[in-house]
Amino acid sequence: MFRTLSLFIATFFLSLLLCVTPLQATALKKAAPKEVIVSVNKNNITQGDVDFFMLSRNIPAEQQAKSRKKTIEILIDRRLMSDFLAKRKITVSPKEIDARIKRIHNLVRRKGDDPQKVLKKMGLSEKRLREEIQLPLLWGREAREIISDTQLRKYYKKYRREFDGTKIRAKHIFIALKKEATKEDIQQAEQKLLDIRKKIEAGDITFAMAAKQYSESPSKKEGGDVGLIRYRGEMPKSFCLVAFQLKVNEISQPVRTSFGWHLITVTKIKKGDISLEDVRSVVFNRLAAELWDELVKQQRKKATIKWHSKN
Question: Dihedral through CA 23, CA 40, CA 95, CA 280, nearest 10?
């Protein structure tokens, strides 16, 4: 089944790619698959490449138009990294790729479908499938060569609260932003929180009182208290990235999330007891993701990227 393989490939790549770049959805552009969108160091990225990437990640059709630009940027990054790894002479054996293709075929067969027919329906050749599988394998090998045990331990120690199950009791003062908020609206909301922060720091008002007076969150009734939270789960990622680095009673600068602006403070830290060995793969994947981003940034500075079509 077409959808079955799309879902499998999406899941498969997510488990292999050490830097998962989340997509915001969009709609497939109706253009010839061979139309060249952009060339990266003289290697072309076509409309077919864009279509396949979105299909294999199971991006809903109604959301594909918005993510088109981001999809193309991701494909540029992937091409740059493919070139980088080739220059580094990083290789994987055909047997490794064969084993993963076999898994895909077996999954499709278990669903009662024919692998070749499904691949054809997706417009995906065996060669193309091999290429898609090869990049995360190559990157995994490179990352394992670069990232040392010492680096892992240092990273875990630096961001320990985010990995060891630590919980924090946080308060926030929240200013909402509408979807149609203008640049001026965004700046005004940020400035409002900066002014509130100054009042709190000067001792003119407590954080709890300021939350009751200014916050637009239901938690204002409790002085902005959102209770004990974990790094993953209860609050937006950008909120937690800042909150989990704060000391007790320290007040953050304004933090932007998809909902609006937040001023954050921490009133209690409940230390976790999850060791590095328990979360080694999680720490490794995050460090590898940061390494990928840094290498891509370096490669972009040296690359020749030429756009052939409006994105």
Answer: -50
Burial class (CB in 10 A: 0-12, 13-18, 19+), 163: buried
Domain-embedded: residue 158: no
| Per-residue pLDDT tens over the stretch 113-143 | 888 887 776 666 778 788 888 999 999 999 9
Q: Are residues 8 and 140 in the same domain?
A: yes
Please indicate, yes or no, if residue 280 is contained in any of the structural domains.
no
| Global confidence as pTM | 0.73
CA triplet 218, 182, 71: central angle to 5 degrees?
A: 95
R_g (Cα) of the chain, nearest Å: 23
Tokens of 149: 């045990």
- Residue 159 CA to residue 177 CA, distance in Å, equals 30
Rounded Cα–Cα distance for residues 5 and 101 (Å):
11
Question: Do 137 and 185 reside in the same domain of the chain?
Answer: no
Are 171 and 264 a contacting pair, CB within 8 Å? yes
Same domain for 257 and 172: yes
Q: Which domain holds residue 90?
A: 2-149+292-307
Specify if 183 maps to a domain: yes
